[in-house]
Amino acid sequence: MKEDIAKFLLSKGYYLTALEFYQELLEDDGTELESLKQYFSNQAPTDRLDNNNQIFNHKSSTPTTTNNNNNNSAEKQRISSLEQELKHAKEEINKLRSQQITSNNGQQQVKSPTVSNSNTSDSISSSISQEDKETLKQLSKEKIKSHELKILNYLTKQYLIKNNYSLTAVSLSEETEEDYRQWSDLKINGVEPPSILTMYRYFFENGDAGIQGAISKAMGEISKLKKDLLDTESNWRESKKKLQLLQKEKDDLSDKNKEYEQRFEDISKRFKSGQNDITSSTSNLLSSPILKSQDTSKNSNTTSNQHSTTTTTTTTVKSEINQDNLSVMRKTFRSLIEKRRQTVAFRIVSNNIDDESEISLRVAEEVDRIRTLESDNQSIVKIVADSLPHIAKGVLINKREELIPLILIVIYNHPDENVRFSLTKFLFNLNKKPNEVQRHVIMRGCMQLASIIGPARTETEILSQCWEMLTEKHPEKRVLVADSCGCLAQFVNAELRLSLILSILQRLGEDKSKLVKEAVAKNFSLLINFFESSDKYQQVEESFKKLLYDQDVEVQVAARSYFLPSLANWADLLESLNSRLANMLLTELYNILSKYMSQKDEVKIQESDIIKTDQLLLCLSDIIPRIYQSIVASSPFVTEKDAKSIETEYNKQEALYQFQLTNYSSTNNINSSQSIMNINNENINNNNNSSNSSDNNENRNSTNIVTNSSIRIAILGDQEIQKLTVAFEQYIQSMVTNDVPQSWNSLEWIANDFLSKLIKIISCIPLYNNILIIQLSKTINKFCLTFGQTFTKKIVKNAFLRELQKDPKSEETKKYRVLSVFTAGVLTTLPSSELLNFLKDIIVLISMEEKGWVHQNILSLVKCLELLCNNVFDRKKEVCEAISDLTANPANPVRTCILNLLRVTIPLFKPDQISGSVVPSLVMMSTDPDRSVRYVCLGSAAVAISNLQDQVSIDRLAISIEKILEDKNHNLEVEFVKSMTKIIPTVQNRFRESFILPKILDFARKNNHNPSNENRSEMSQILFDSARAYLALSTSSSAAMNSANAIQLLKLILNDAELHDNTFKTMVQTMLADLEHHNSAGVASTSSTPPKKVNSSTSTGNLLNKIEPPNLSNLNFKNWGWKNTNNK
């Protein structure tokens, strides 16, 4: 400390002060500092001192000289001269003080030579981290600031005065021309810093310069954890609100379901009364829009010829599929697909055709009256055509849809093609940013017009306008183009659908707007319902993948909900649902995940790959019911009579479904018209926000998307499927016995190719990607439930077992990754005995390292049990039963493995399961003859105690732990202290105070007399961690901070501090002093005031401070703010 003061005075040029300091040290205790001795022992020190006095103290007229031989006389002479000079200096300082306070500190240039602190830095460099070293190095290079120099001079002077170096202090005041006796004299806004001695003792006495930094980092981590806790609570509240909304929606749907069931009973009665009426109503409901347009257009010769070309093109391409080789049921199933494409595609998909508004219906009816007009009104039509652009300017924006019938009538009757084209352009630009309702009205009018004018004029006058609007600025206009492609596809030639319309949608699919791409996905589903050949299948499939991989969630949902069902219908009619669509999904999955197959480490999959994989798995899950129906419908064993019966049942169900849709549309007409009025009123106030209103309308119908998708993607109902399932299961039995009467190609594909590719995909997913593992398990679970238990047990289970039996040394297999998906996805669909037996077998195999399994696969087993115990599959009962049954296994490795698994799975169980099954198992294994088993049992018992509330079960486990500790073994005692330390923050207060702390005290006393220094040091360190865990429970003052046992524990640990470094001893002493201070303060408060009841809600303490360093905020140090004053 004295050496540092001397170096500081020399480095700042305070030579007179340094000399006084040197002399006073010699006179006081004979101390002779090396740095001062070297400096003043050089040649002509007196001359240099004289020069320095002239520079730093211009008022000094008599140089100070020293004479060691005559100390008494020299001292008197020096004191008299210094007193005179001090008097003059004080007078001058008082005059200049006001000027110094108001002057700018930045303008005062204080030259300070570089301070050499190499000796000090070297002494503490071993205890400072690299980051702190860089910080100190950077700080030492910075030039000292004026206010920093004042503070250092003040602190140095205070140090000299307190240590009786008064003459040196006076010399320092003269040389610095500063006489600050109090902190307030410096005129610096800030808290007074501690003394130099305090700073040295706190930061550098033990060679540890990182205490404050460590505390700051710890407090930062605590703040981060608290913030995460608040975020988790807010997310939980949001999830709770969503759950309530979903429950309400579920109740509403159940009410509607009851209503539909009542209507179904009424319709069934009508079916019994007359089959002919049902057949006629069904045919009316299932008639396609194309046929309607043909029947109504027979009044015009030109239009009838054009429609004949349309129908012939759609029938000639069907010859591509040879139906002679198809079974009876397969032919029937294809006809049902055709009916579905003609009806549901136009009642549910996109454009809100299933939710007709009053305006759109009225516009369609008015346009349809064109058929009754005569052709001798061309003069009137020309006048109206010239007046329409001028009339539209005077019509309110929210009423312009009323002009649509007039515009379409003029387009139909005007003889000039150029005028018709300009009017079509005017129709599409009627609104600057048409919202959903306005687009719907325009499309309904255009559909009615296209059904009258025929394919040729539709192509030249309407679709050509769509091509020109591809570069429109507003996305709402481009959405209108996409809607035109979907709605008008039924009114054009097949060649035009495969060329112009397809190219428009493909180009719009690359648009940047989310609204446009969502519309493209919906209208693609309309367009491909008219594709019969496979010419453009590859292009359409690529468009589907682009939309599915889009970054916007709305586009992904639209691709799955609208595009995928229509694509499945098309692929099924091409007899390539399995070979193309399903195989494409599997290939895409494997291409994305195959790069993780060869990696040795279980790494995390990239976020982009996770999103793509998740979407592909959802698509695969959606089409699984359709794959099953397509397979069972291709059964070669269904007779023509049964096929006819299935078709009749389908017609009934489809008629009921169409009736429900029609009734739903009619009951919502009033609401639709009211919503239109509201939207129109909003457009009057702010027409620029029409896109927002369209988004709101689409979100309003989002709840119907998934429901409609699940209905549209399946063709057959439950009753029809039941008739086909019998033949399916019989064939499965014959496949197992190799007694197959006839081949079934589609079933063989699903049993061989599909499952093998699926298992390869599972092998590519690393263990630590829980999201994909859960999603894949759910997909396979749905697959097994759809195909039934017979198929799952005979085919799927055997395929997975073959994979699990492969040689693990092979590079082509990673069977440990398949384990969790197999148990959660496959075995949960079978009887619980299958899952229970498999779990027992696989635990034994991994524990004993048999049949290619090793101990490293325990991680896969843990993931498997975690997946089974989560809320998705909820098989806690089977897992708990399997573990309990294996506790009596004769093999020690199996029992040890069970205990290790219990450490992980106990927090996943319910308290009653822990008390009923886990506790008896732990009690039994606590008396195991093998010491290693008892050793592991301690940790599992501790985890169980921390998750229990039942006092009886806790007492049973405490007695078991007592029995284990009867074996006097150092490692066993160390394991006990470690296990108890982990559960101190979460265990009940009663168990912590009555069991854990007394046991730890006993071990601490015993450790003081341990002859082995190594064992004694290890135990004292663990006991210190336990003490810190107690002190971390800051809110539990009555249980921990005021506990005499805790003070006694620290004293016992302090006895072993000699085996550790000085830091350990300092921390123990600090904690002990802090605890005694709080204990004495508590005694004083209780003597003056009556005791208060402790709030039980705070007994658990701050769980974020588990086993962290003690709270050093109570060490009676001031809350220093001097570090933040350097920028002021």
CATH topology label of the largest domain: Leucine-rich Repeat Variant
| Shape annotation | flat
Q: Assign the CATH class of the largest domain.
A: Mainly Alpha
Number of helices, where a helix is a run of at least 4 consecutive DSSP H or I residues? 48
Biggest beta sheet summary: none
What percentage of the residues does DSSP assign to strands (E)?
Answer: under 5%
Give the overall average pLDDT. Answer: 74
Structural domain tally: 4
The amount of helix comes to over 70%
The CA-CA distance between the termini, in Å, is: 29 Å
Radius of gyration: 44 Å
In the CATH hierarchy, the architecture of the largest domain is: Alpha Horseshoe
Task: Name the structural class.
Answer: mainly alpha
Number of DSSP strands?
A: 0
Q: Which residue ranges are poorly predicted, with pLDDT under 50 across at least 5 consecutive positions?
A: 43-69, 102-127, 273-319, 344-355, 665-711, 1035-1042, 1086-1128
